[in-house]
């Protein structure tokens, strides 16, 4: 997968956490992707356990629980000698 895919996922996650996505059409335009692609990202995130919901009054996606995605490599504290 291209790096851009993960960057988009992180951006969508950030906007959901701050409740600043706007309507789906606005978010897709902001992300420079189609609405269909946006819905595919949201489905993937939901499939991975994200409790994504939509507030029609505030016109924004949000997480039903606190949390977010952390997509990066984290070095282990274990040294090679311990393995």
From TrEMBL:
Top-rank lineage group of the source organism: Bacteria
SUPFAM superfamilies associated with the record: Winged helix' DNA-binding domain
Protein known as: Helix-turn-helix type 11 domain-containing protein
């Amino acid at each position: 997968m291209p790096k851009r895919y993960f960057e988009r996922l992180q951006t969508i996650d950030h906007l959901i956490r701050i409740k600043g996505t706007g309507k789906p059409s606005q978010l897709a335009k902001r992300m420079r992707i189609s609405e269909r692609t946006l819905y595919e990202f949201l489905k993937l995130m939901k499939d991975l356990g994200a409790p994504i919901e939509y507030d029609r009054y505030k016109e924004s996606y949000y997480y039903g629980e606190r949390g977010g995605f952390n997509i990066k490599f984290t070095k282990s504290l274990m040294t090679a000698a311990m393995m």
